[in-house]
Structure formats: structure tokens, C-alpha cells
Amino acid sequence: MNVPRSIRRLALAGVAFAALAAPATAAPYDLPAGFRTQAVTTNGTTIHVRVGGKGPAVVLIHGYGETGDMWSPLAADLARDRTVIVPDLRGMGLSAPAEAGFEKVNQADDIAGVMDALDAKSAEVVAHDIGNMVAYALAARHPERVSKLVLMDAPVPGVGPWDEILKSPLLWHFRFGGPDMERLVAGRERIYLDRFWNEFSADPKGFDAASRAHYAKLYAAPGRMHAGFSQFAAFDKDASDNRAWLASHGKLTMPVLAVGGAASFGPMMAVVGQAGAINVQERVIPGAGHWLMEEQPAATVKAIRGFLDAPASGPSSGRITAAALSLEQTQAAPTAGAGAGTSGVTGIRTVLLQGDPAKPGPYALEIHVPANTTIAAHTHADDRFATVVSGAWYLGYGRAAGEAAVTPLTAGGFYTEPGGAPHFAFTRDTPAVVRVTGVGPSDTTYVAASAAR
177 and 65, same structural domain? Predict the structure, then answer.
């Protein structure tokens, strides 16, 4: 398979992010006024963190060629209604120098430790470049801690087209590291980094001279290039870890936004996302290469803000929201038992796909019914529509099965549940999955009080 030009461009870029050093005058890489600095000791190292704003937590994770400072435009926007947490990765930026521990699973534990220190039980996570790799490991190993995930313009080791990317002879820097290479680059950090900033921008002028000087100075500090090279050196272990995790645990289930620069990874970012997650949206930023926050900050912030602000489920009243869910996504959605508009029968699992049947407005739910299960005659207050997704489903209209004809339905079968009209259903020797939509508030009223079993 040929590696698309957009992937080749990304691969040469490596992976990136930036640290906070607050000069006297504001610069494009300065985080907003009011952000405080904290040194968090965790997982055998000390992580430099900036925190600002108020509200639900969002964690911004950088990669190679920058530090947490890259997030300045996004941090300013999100701090209006969120607590924004900006760590520098292990050994990079203003975090403590580190000799080891650059496997992305381990660095995910660094981030979890930062969240613990800041009492952030869960957070939205936004990442770029090598930050993607750390964020993916965090979301996989600690899914309860990541409510939404944004991955920006970089691959994830072992996921999707990773092996094809590695075949490109242009990926020299993935294997460029070690003490000799560190000595070769020492004192020439700006020359080395300029290549990435130039070649992976849609227009090199989009990465301004002040930012280049700022980051080159940070990377020239003791141990910083070692940390950067060590990020690449861990890729083989990262790929092995991710493949094993996907095989045993499956894809991520939280909402994921895959953002690519049109002149860099572009729509291939969504291919990577879909290989590792089941609920993926795509955004391609025009006029941007790899360095999205520098080249097109307004468009990038708008895309991220729109994704983070969108409700995870449907509306509570009045209007339906856009939703497109694959069978894989619905199967991975959280399940519950009895609730408004559900049967309440023991053993039946209910998946709420959108909205809330107990409230005004559209809703959609799915019932997973075991074999040899009966839902006795009942009514609902609203008109409902239903489709059989899988299995064999037996439906009848009336007060009892002995008093009405039963229609057998298999996958693709459709039926209605008119408001106030008694109906019943059951399975025989195979289970069934049925998808139901209606406009709430809904309820379930059994014809006989003892009917549900």
C-alpha cells in the first residue's frame, strides 16, 4: 500500500507541544493571564502544569517540537467555562528532566496523577502529535476518566495505518536518537526543529519567528532533546501495547473528534480514529498543515469547542439532535434496566440512544431481550415506532396473546405502538434486539398489574 502524501508529511513532522515560561510581554505562545503554575510530583517524576479557568476539567496534551504553550488560543477560549489543565510531558518543557518512562502507557499514568492532584476525577482531553499517543493510552486504560477525546494530526502506534506509515523511507527521525544523535543536535536545536516547522506547515510563515525562538530555547535546555528522542524510541513498545489492548479490550467508546490539517494528515486522521474508537467525528482544517494551533487557531478552536460543547446524548425537550450511530456503537453504549418507556422485565437490557423518554421531546432506545422472555400486554402514552435489529420478535396487538394474532418479525421488521393501544411481545428460542423511537414523555402501563414478569 502506498503511503498517502498527507501521511508522509505528517510522519516527518514527528509529534509536538509546549511549556509555560511567562515573559514580560505577551507572545503567541503565552497562556492567558490568571493561569497558575503547579509542580505535580507523580509516578516517579515531576510534571510542570498550568491551570486556569473554572468549571468541568479539560486536559490539553502537547507533543514534540512544542510545549504546553502551543495551547494558548484554545486555553483562552475554554477557560471561560472550564478548568483548563495544561501539563508538559515527562522530561519536556519545564517538567523535571527524566531518563526513562517514555512509554505512552506510563505517561498516561503521569497525566492521571496530575488529574488526581487537581481533584479532576474525569476530564475532556485534547491532544496533538505525540500527545495523541499519550491521550489514547489514557483513554484506553482509564476510560472512566476521559469523557471526550480530541486527537489532532498524528498517528497512534499500532492503531490503524501505523505499519504503513512506518514503511516510508521519509521517517528517518522515528529512528534518530540516542547519545550520539543528542550530541550531533546539541547547540543546533533550532536547525533541527526548523525542518519540522517548515516542512509540515501549509505555509512556513504560519509558525512565527518568536515562537520558533521560544521553543528552540526550551529544547536546548539540559535533557530536553533526550526526552524528545526517547518519545520516538518508545514507539515499538507503544505499538505492541496498543495492539494487545485493542485485541483484549476493544475500541474506545467515548466520543472522539479526529482533526487533521488539510495540508497534512487531513481525512486520514479519521481513519486512525475509527481504527481505535467506535464513536468518531471528523474535522479537516483548511489552510493548515500539522501545526494547527499556530496556522489556523480560530478554525481549530471553533472545531474543538463545537465538539466539546455538543451534548453526549439527545435533547431533553422539543428538538431532535443529529446522531449517526453504527451497530458497533449502539452495542457498546451503556445499558440500563427499568426506566420511563421500558418494560421493566427482568433480564431485558435497555440502551438509551438519544433523548430521555421521561421528558418532553424525541427519544430513541434499544431493548436487548433474552430468549424465552415475555412482555405482557401494556400501553404507552406516546406513539412509538419500532424496528427489529436482530433475532426473532413476536408481536401482537390486544390484551393477551391468546386473544390476538401474533406477527413474527425478524431483522428489518417494522411495527408501530399507537399511544394507548394495548400490545404485547415475546421471544422464543432466540434473543432479539429491537429499536424504538417516540416523543416523550412516555410511560409503560400494564393491562394487568401482575402482567410483568
Answer: yes
